[in-house]
Design brief:
The structure is a single chain. The protein is α+β, with helices and mostly antiparallel strands and about 450 residues long. It has one domain: Outer membrane efflux proteins (OEP), CATH 1.20.1600. The chain is about 65% helix and about 15% strand. Helix 2 crosses helix 4 and helix 3 packs antiparallel against helix 4. The longest helix is centred in the N-terminal third of the chain and has 68 residues. The radius of gyration is 37 Å and the shape is elongated.
Length: about 450
């Protein structure tokens, strides 16, 4: 694979990096991966989370700094003048000092350092959740466009068929083979299908706009999911998915890191009862100049060094430390309850998604049969109408049922893909590679 350079390389699956370097041609139909690649580079929500993650990465460095040597340099220059004769008290003083402070033991600093690691861990799970969310949002927007396209296509077909039926009814009425009621009925169906087509076109425009917000550029041609496509199957053991969800769900992981950080906060506040020890070493140099040696010989340049250890033990702080420890314990309890709730919600979501996938498989199979049977019935009704065995109302009803079944099948296929992606997201395992599985099933036309 060619070497490709991207500013956010670490957030993008390696299998997609080089593909990102090639823009989607206007004449080609874009697939799920194409749209996702554009969204990765443009989506403002993900970019915001990336920046926040980079900021949170500095928390560990900041906390570790309190454990490392603190070195400080000071310098000063002063001119002292007095009203004594012949400048007897005048002198220039230059001072330089270098001070090193090293914490030997500080319970709060070590606890904050440990706490910062959980803060970073939580931020990592947040960015991973944002990446999963982008995959779901891209897929949802993509299939909304496809469904809207199908609605437009079907509404146009319905409108054209109703128009033809209306024209036939008028022609039949002119020769006495159809009643005025048949003509009015056909005209009403045509007017209704025309209004449905206008609404469908507007919905398609809105869907395109929502997709463009993710990609940052218009994508006019999209690959579609064929009606007879075979979606990949997988094990749907509900207990397995439940256990995986409560263990690996990214929201659960965030709450776990938050609870661990809250536990460390208790240790931070307990530091008010602990001693602290520190090492301090310093070196200073004082130089004197421009003074009258006839009056004052006490100004002598000198260099001094010192080193020592200090120990501090808090004795009483008015009860503040105990109160802060109690507060931290309650906050930990709150975080723990949030963790418990997130696990329960993850299990619930896993059960819902597994059942949705199971029912979705059955629904797709049923709708495929419905499309076949309604198409056959429509053809029979049209033939029967030509020979006078079926009424116009029966033909119009059969056509409406066929188009409705076809549209419902398209929606069910899209929903089934989204349900599977959401199931993977529920267990914290949704990746861009999962899109490649469904992207391979897309075709240029349906």
């Amino acid at each position: 694979m060619k070497n490709c350079s991207f500013p956010w390389r670490k957030f993008v699956p390696a299998t997609l990096l080089c593909a990102m370097a090639v823009p989607v041609q206007a004449a080609q139909s874009a697939g799920l991966l194409d749209v996702y690649q554009m969204a990765v580079l443009h989506d403002a929500t993900l970019a915001q989370q990336r920046a926040t993650y980079q900021a949170n990465k500095q928390v560990v460095t900041t906390a570790r700094a309190a454990l490392l040597p603190q070195i400080q340099a000071d310098g000063s220059y002063s001119r002292n003048e007095t009203d004594l004769p012949a400048g007897a008290g005048d002198v220039d003083v230059r001072s330089l000092s270098l001070t090193l402070n090293q914490s030997l033991y500080n319970h709060a600093s070590w606890a904050r350092y440990a706490q910062s690691k959980y803060t970073l861990e939580q931020a990592e799970f947040v960015i991973k959740a944002s990446e999963q969310d982008l995959i779901v949002r891209v897929s949802d927007a993509y299939f909304k466009v496809l469904l809207a396209q199908e609605d437009v296509k079907l509404s146009k077909a319905q409108e054209e068929a109703d128009k033809t039926q209306w024209e036939r009814a008028k022609a039949s009425a002119e020769v006495g083979l159809a009643s005025r009621t048949d003509v009015l009925q056909a005209k009403s169906s045509y007017d209704l299908s025309k209004s449905n087509r206008i609404s469908a076109e507007n919905a398609l425009d809105v869907a395109y706009e929502e997709l463009m917000k993710l990609t940052g550029k218009p994508v006019e041609h999209l690959k579609v999911l064929a009606l007879q496509v075979s979606l990949p199957s997988e094990s749907l053991d509900i207990a397995t998915w439940e256990n995986k969800a409560q263990r690996d769900n990214l929201t659960v992981k965030q709450f776990e890191a938050q609870a661990e950080g809250a536990a460390e906060e208790i240790e931070v506040q307990k530091s008010g009862h602990w001693f602290s020890a520190g090492l301090q070493a310093s070196m200073s140099n004082n130089e004197y100049s421009n003074f009258n040696t006839n009056f004052n010989n006490s100004y002598t340049d000198r260099t001094s060094t010192s080193i020592g250890v200090s120990v501090t033990l808090p004795l009483y702080s008015g009860g503040a430390t105990s109160s802060q420890v109690t507060q931290a314990r309650y906050l930990y309890q709150s975080s723990f309850e949030g963790l418990r709730d997130s696990r329960e919600q993850a299990r619930l979501n896993a059960r819902i998604q597994v059942r949705s996938v199971e029912r979705g498989t059955s629904l797709v199979a049923a709708l495929r049969e419905a499309v076949k049977s309604n198409k056959a019935f429509l053809e029979a009704a049209e033939e029967g109408y030509k020979v006078g065995l079926k009424s116009l109302l029966e033909v119009l009803t059969a056509r409406s049922n066929y188009y409705s079944a076809r549209r419902n099948l398209v929606e069910a296929l899209h929903t089934q893909v989204l349900n599977r992606l959401n199931l993977e997201a529920t267990v914290g395992d949704l990746q861009a590679d999962d899109l490649a599985v469904y992207d391979a099933l897309l075709t240029e036309t349906n």
